[in-house]
Amino acid sequence: MPMAYKVQRSILPLLPKGSSDITILHFSDLHLRPGQKRKIADIKSFINLKPDLVISTGDFLAHKDAVGPVINALDELLDLPGFFVFGSNDYYGPKFKNPFSYLKKDHGERKLGNKLPWQSLQKKLISRGWKDLNHNKVKIKINGVIVEARGTDDAHLELDNYPLVKGAASKSADISLGVTHAPYERVLAAMASDKLDLIFAGHTHGGQVCIPFYGALVTNCDLPQNQAKGYSEFGETKMPMHVSAGAGTSPYAPIRIACRPEATLLTLTAKELN
Prior knowledge:
The protein has helices spanning 37-45, 67-74, 88-91, 118-127, 185-193, and strands at 6-15, 22-27, 53-56, 82-84, 131-132, 137-142, 145-151, 175-179, 198-201, 210-211, 215-216, 230-234, 239-243, 262-270. By secondary structure, it is an alpha/beta fold. The protein has one domain: 4-Layer Sandwich (Purple Acid Phosphatase, chain A, domain 2), CATH 3.60.21. The chain is globular and about 50 Å long.
């Protein structure tokens, strides 16, 4: 049976000259619920992409009993180095709202469902070795490359507090990454001011409902529609950024149009010799 997800692939020459390649699996917005056997099987198959590093930009959950299924789905990936942040739907469950409201511009109104067991998810991810980047900085070595990473908590719920991790990119690192769930411009601008090399985000679902040959109608944040998914550059500094279109949807709006669920394998390579 073919996968329900599309695997995007990109090559980015961002590492110092002479560096070994690093492959990064970026996924987001699983919105997992118990009983989603097909989705769990697809997520398990991501291990076949053989990444060196895994980055999840949040919204793992969509049900109070989903922590176990999430850990089951990620099991083999959790044996690899990994970074994660949380999104609004890791803290609060989905709540019914008019599906057409997804097509409206975000005005900051939030309808929150029941609280979800995010602490349990956090504890299990950390116990398997993944690094929690919710207002944290870490530094690890992969394939001989020193990777610095920092992240924020969810900007959609205004939980972001970038000053907790601000500061110029480490001179001892070969590459500095920023990780956040919702790519609000205030967070991206702060990361750009610190001259990070590459940003990872999710939340947008790629627009979820798109028009062929046009693209996303909305982003569910203040990011322009033409940056709703994939690789783009932010601001005057042209900071590289990758926004995942996500692998799931709210159970109350389970439709995607011209925007397939996805995971992305990014290969970071050495910068070309001049």
